[in-house]
Amino acid sequence: MANATFHTTALTLRALDRLLKSNFRADGLENLSERPTMYVINHFTRAETFIMPYIIWKYAGHYCRSLADAKLFKGPLANYFHQMGVVSTKQKDRDKLIIGNLMSGRHNWVIYPEGAMVKTKKLITKGKVRLTTPGHVGPPHRGAAVLALKSEICKRQILQLHERGDDEAVEALCREYFIDGVDDLSATGTVLVPVTISYYPLRPGQNFVKRICQTYFGELPPRLEEELEIEGNLFLRDTDIDINFGKPLEIGDYVRRYMLASKFIPVLRSLDRSNLLLRAQSRKITESFMTSMYSNAAINIDHLVCTALQKSTSHRLSLDHLRRAVCLAGFKLRNDPKYRMHPTLDLELVRLLTYSESAVFEDILALGERMEILKRDGDEIVIDHQKLRLNHMFHSVRVKNPMSVIGNELEPFVDVVADVDKLINTDPAALRQATADAVLVTDKNDFEQQYRRYFDPKISHSMEVGEPFLLRAPDSRTGVVLAHGYSAAPAEVRQLAEHLHGQGHNVYAVRLWGHGTAPHNLAEINWQDWLHTYLRGYACLRDICDHVVLGGFSTGGLIALLAAAEIGQPVDGIFSICAPSRLKDIRAAIAPAMHWWNDLLDKFNISKAQVEYVESAAENPHTNYCHIYVAGLAQLDKLMKEAMRALPRLQAPALIMHSSDDPTVDSRAADRIYRAIGSEDKEFELVTADRHVIVNGEGCDDLYRHIADFVGACSVQAEKESAPATAGPVQEPDTIVTQAASVPHEQAIG
After folding, report:
1. Adjacent-strand bridge partners of 552
2. Helix axes 527-544, 345-354, angle to 10 degrees
């Protein structure tokens, strides 16, 4: 193996890594070590033969040898492979070379145990792992496990012979396995590391590599054309390539029983295929690493959508029902740590539930339309199950039926597939309630996990302060989503929530991520996290109520405004109390610059001059943090800018309220927010007060009454708009919020 050739190739791949549009992401790096290692990797693309040794070198820092199809060893490519340490599958003594390398630790090895690319990703038949490739139909190959076992068995045999002084036998075995001598043996045992590669999204279509080849070479062989189309798109488009290094298998654990049995039963000392004990142990190892390899795929939204379409017993589905089924399946995954999720899935679940634009959901549906597997009919889709289940030829299925391939990849996750099957065929009303319950469970789990992780007995409040809460009004059709301010917790708005609940409304007080735990939690959160948790609250009430009004105090009010703009027309109203667009507090005003300074110093590993947090003199110390982290304030600054850009899109009825002498948030912020809102149905109220936190404590009655009237008016208007044309008039409440056109721009509440 020529290290110079490998190094040159690695540098080339590193350059391509920067140029290609693919996004490589590796985790499980803690499972990499300096021990003799056999990496067993699932095989979906030909490029993996070149890429995986580079990836392992990049993260583990050592070279790997690998096997390649003997058909590739022709012309200049054969010489290149030899210099790279790639061995032909037909090379004489290849197994002994692999065993010897693992015994000595001289080289690690990459093996593709499936024996060929599994283009169909069809891995499960009748509940068992069975491969279907042109060269093999049946259970997985055990060759990798056998080689790993033999490396440990032979090493122990050599050491035993050496201890007995049988130098001739030692020399013979070392020569047979290309080892220099006993001193060349590794002091550590062989491990086998399962590696899982997941690609997202999988999309067929033209690309410039395929186009160039067609231009210069004319008609291409169908198999080559298919591989250029699929792999060109995977590596030249914006594809996420997720690589997981699984937990290592200690081969020594499987060898002990063999060594003990062979000591008393001479026939078991043989290392040929007739050794039943060796076969049994290799089968156990294979089952273990194949299970790990297939169960560590990163589950994405395409998996859930394609499986839902496959499992639907109806050929017609409402898009709303499909969204809910996918979301509920996703929430179950999210709440179970044994599953690995694609990073975008959590965000997409929120978008699907809130009817925000989800480009990835639309993209997988568009793929189905291009493949003529489904077609849209208004708010429904019609599925052609016959085309979806059609078995294409092995070397064309990725192009002709990629949705089948995507669905097949999820089959090893038996529980997930069963959940999707159940959910997509569940009654719509029951699915709505189940989705709302799932949001509540997810929010509760998130809080408890963050609370346990960040809890500080000196500064953390009780769990009751930080826990989100839902106040149900079973007879009401209206719900209010309510959010607290920056560095506070849901308890800050409980008094207002209870008043609205007393008026007959459902109220969900959300916990913005990073709050209600400990101050340093906010240093690791971004403003998008706050928005997503708020949107989940909206999704929960949307499945419980017919009409939803958004609201919040301070930063929570700003989040509510941004959420209303994000969601669009389904929102029935929005009220915001003392929301910031700029802050008076100089410590907050300089936060972005301080955050930039901290980042700069961090790059040079300088910590002494960094300012992580400032002390806070909160109005309500029983709900607020005592420290304000600079990184969190920088996110607040970004949130204010994002919200101000979004306000012109807000078309729902809006009520903007602010304290007249707010010591924290400049009261002119309310005027800027009011003027930026795109809705013509808007109102601005200035509350006579000399404090920022006007949502609890004494003197809140008029504020509460005004908000309750606004919510009631929004509910009445929504009922009017949703009522059938023949329906009678809707009884309006005694007090209605006056529309902006008929009230002064500013009106004080005494």
Report:
1. 483, 576
2. 40
With b meaning 16 or more CB within 10 Å and e meaning fewer, what string describes 180-196? eebebbbeebbbbbbbb
Domain spans, the chain: 3-201+239-295, 301-426, 451-584+632-722+731-749
State residue 38's pLDDT score.
97
Instruction: Tell me if 3-201+239-295 shares its fold with 451-584+632-722+731-749.
Output: no
pLDDT digits (tens, 9 = 90+) for 427-454: 999 999 999 999 999 999 999 999 999 9
Give the per-residue pLDDT at 591.
46
Tens digits of residue pLDDT in 74-122: 877 777 777 777 888 888 899 999 999 999 999 999 999 998 899 999 9
Report which of 533, 582, 572, 526 is spatially closest to residue 556, judged by C-alpha positions. Answer: 533
Closest alpha carbon to 564 in 677, 686, 485:
677
Identify whether the C-beta of residue 251 lies closer than 8 Å to the C-beta of residue 191. yes
Close Cβ partners of 247 (under 8 Å, ≥ 6 residues apart): 28, 31, 194, 292
For the chain, what is the radius of gyration of the CA atoms?
31
- What gap in Å lies between CA 508 and CA 475, rounded to an integer? 16
CATH of domain 451-584+632-722+731-749: 3.40.50.1820
User: Residue 413 has which token pair?
Assistant: 């996750």
Strand-pair partners of 615 = 627
What would the two tokens of residue 467 be? 């826990």
Look at residue 609 and give its three-state secondary structure: coil
The residues, any chain, with a CB within 8 Å of residue 4's CB and separated by 6 or more, are none
Specify the residue for token string 């809080």. Answer: 447
What pTM, to 2 d.p., does this model score? Answer: 0.84
DSSP code, position 740: G
Residue 461's SS3 state is coil
What pLDDT is stored for residue 750 in this prediction?
30
| One-letter amino acid of 652 | A
Question: Which segments in the chain show pLDDT lower than 50?
Answer: 585-591, 593-598, 600-611, 725-750
CB 645 within 8 A of CB 636: no
For the stretch 563-589, pLDDT in tens is 999 998 789 999 999 999 876 533 444
Q: Which fold has domain 3-201+239-295?
A: Glycerol-3-phosphate (1)-acyltransferase (3.40.1130)
Q: What is the largest CA-CA distance in the chain?
A: 105
* pLDDT at site 431: 94
Q: How far apart are CA 112 and CA 506, in angstroms?
A: 56
CA pseudo-torsion sign 476, 481, 483, 489: positive
Cβ burial of 585 (10 Å; 0-12, 13-18, 19+) is middle
Quickly count: other Cβ atoms within 10 Å of residue 586's Cβ: 8
